[in-house]
Amino acid sequence: MPRPEYVPIQCKSALNRVQGMPFKWSLNPYAGCVHACVYCYARSHYQLAGHGDAGREFETRILVKSNIAEVLRRELRRPSWSFELVSLGTVTDCYQPAEGRFRVTRACLETLADCANPLGMVTKSPLVLRDLDILAPLARQAKVRIFFTITTVDLDLWRTIEPGTANPFKRLAVMQRLNEAGVPAGVLLAPILPGLTDSSASLEAVAQAAAEHRAAFLGTSTLRLAPVVKEQYLGFVDREHPDLLPRYERAYPGREAPQAYQQALDARVERIRERYGFAERSMRKAGLSSAAEPLPADPLPRRVGPQLLLPMIS
Hints:
alpha/beta, 7-stranded mixed beta sheet, disordered C terminus
C-alpha cells in the first residue's frame, strides 16, 4: 500500500452530537484510515467533510487532530456536561498505526478517565492493549465497552477486504486479554457482506472464534452502501467477485439491502448467536440491543455453501 501522509490539524470541537444511534456522543481523533476496508462507510464522511476523495486519499491522507484532548478536556468541564457515554472511532479507527506515533487517542482516554466518563469503542487494532493501564481502572469506575470488528476469519478473504488491518485472530487474542483484565470486550461481526460472508458457515466461524476467545458479547450489522461508499465497494466486487456484481446492483438500488433479506439474515444470525451462548440477555448485559448497531461500524459476511444472497437477487 502507498505510504500514508499524516497532516496535523487543530480541531474546534472534540465531541460530536449523534442522532439515531444507541449513544449520543462520538469522538474521532483522526480523519481517514489506512486500514482501507473496502466496505467502510466512513469514506463518505471523509469526502463530504471536504478532507479528500473517498478512495485513495481516505486511505493515505490521514488528518491528525493534534489538540483534540485539550478541546475535550474543556468540553467535559462544561456545567452542562452530564457524563454520558462517548463512543470513540465512529468514522475512523482510533488505533490505526498513526496512533503508535501520535498518541492522541491515549490522550483522549486519559482525559475521559480523569472524570470517570463512560466510553465505548470500535477498533480492528491490537494496539488498544497498550492502553490497558487506563482502560482497566476506568472500567472499575464507569461503563466501558470495547468492540473488535471481525468481518471474517477466512484469512484469504480478510486480506482482500481489509488490507491494512491486523490479522483477525490477533484482534481476538487482545480482546480476550482485555476481558481477563476486567475490561468488557466483544465482537462486532460487521458488516456482513452479501454473497461473501453471509453464509451460515462464515457467520458460525466468527461466532465460534468469538466464543473460544471468551467474547463478552457479539453484535452484528448489515452492509449499507451510501452513494460514495457504493462506488468504492462495487468497484471491489467487480474486480474480485465479478459474478456477484449484477446481483448487488439489483439488490442495492438504494443504501439498504432488501427487507426480506435482512429479516432472513437476522434470523440466521440469532440462531447462531444462541448456539454459541450470545443470547439476547448477553446483549442486554452489554447495554445493547441486537436490533441496533451497538457502536458505529456500518456493518454485515465468504462464499461458503448456500448463500442467502442468491435467491434475494436472482
